[in-house]
Design brief:
alpha/beta, 6-stranded mixed β-sheet, 4-stranded antiparallel β-sheet, 9 helices, 26% strand
Length: 258
């Protein structure tokens, strides 16, 4: 099947999300194909992080659909209605989607390698030996092979975030979601995390990245989507959105952050 016929890795159609009376997402349409990097930009409160959490069903949507690799996320369709899957089925589908948060969320009482093997062993029932071998290879890939037996508290923020990326990769995901992965880091540590993400993109990992790093979006993204007020304002290639934005709201945002 050629690329024009293949379904998107992520496809959102008419996605709405409310928190009480607050409508946070107002009919989001979005897609990214396998092997592509999509960056989501926008001011704080625009709905970017909420949308990212909806992709792997950490937040339940109120209307619309989201599919990953052709499968609805969190739901199945029966008799023209959507029915939420059981927790075990949701967990299984979610296990194929890696997510890296602003805060590193490492288990402080576990060593780095123990952090990496916990989910493959507990969720996937993999052998400890197999998960450990793959985990050590991933630590080498992110430049932290010598930190396998260290505890998170002994690592810098940039190192902890690289461990978090390796931990997500150890589940062998088909999709990686990044929610402002450098926003909690000191400026001098941002580069080491972005370098790992650049390498992932070069290796063909499908990625959706919420970020304020305009340079990274310009360099790595296949598509850039600008959101504001829970809606997609503009989407296109980095050149289209960052260098020649068509909407005034996009232009005013970029003028402040560039």
């Amino acid at each position: 099947m050629n690329e024009t016929q293949s379904p998107p890795m992520v496809e959102a159609r008419g996605v709405h999300k409310n928190f009480g009376s607050n409508e946070v997402l107002r009919g989001i349409d979005f897609q990214v194909r396998a092997g592509e990097v999509a960056c989501l930009l926008g001011p704080s409160g625009s709905g970017k992080s909420t949308f990212l959490r909806c992709i792997n069903h950490l937040e339940k949507i109120n209307a619309g659909t989201i599919s990953v690799d052709g499968e609805l996320v969190g739901y199945q369709r029966a008799n023209d209605r959507l029915h939420e899957l059981r927790d075990a089925e949701i967990a299984e589908r979610r296990s194929r989607i890696g997510m890296v948060f602003q805060q590193f969320n490492l288990f402080p009482h576990m060593t780095v390698i123990q952090n990496l093997i916990e989910a493959p062993v507990q969720v996937r029932r993999e052998k400890v030996k197999d998960a450990t071998e793959r985990g050590r290879a991933l630590l080498e890939r992110v430049g932290l092979a010598e930190k396998a037996d260290a505890y998170p508290r002994s690592l810098s923020g940039g190192q902890q975030q690289r461990v978090a990326i390796a931990r997500a990769l150890n589940m062998r995901p088909k999709l990686m979601l990044f929610d402002e992965p450098t926003s909690a880091l000191d400026p001098e540590l941002v580069g080491e995390v972005l370098d790992v993400m650049r390498a992932l993109a070069a290796d063909g990992m499908t990625m959706v990245v919420v970020t304020h790093e305009i340079g990274f979006a310009r360099e790595v993204a296949d598509s850039v989507t600008f959101m504001d007020g829970g809606a997609v304002i503009e989407t296109g290639t980095p050149e289209q959105v960052l260098d020649d934005p068509q909407r005034q709201r996009t232009r005013s945002f970029l003028a402040k952050v560039l």
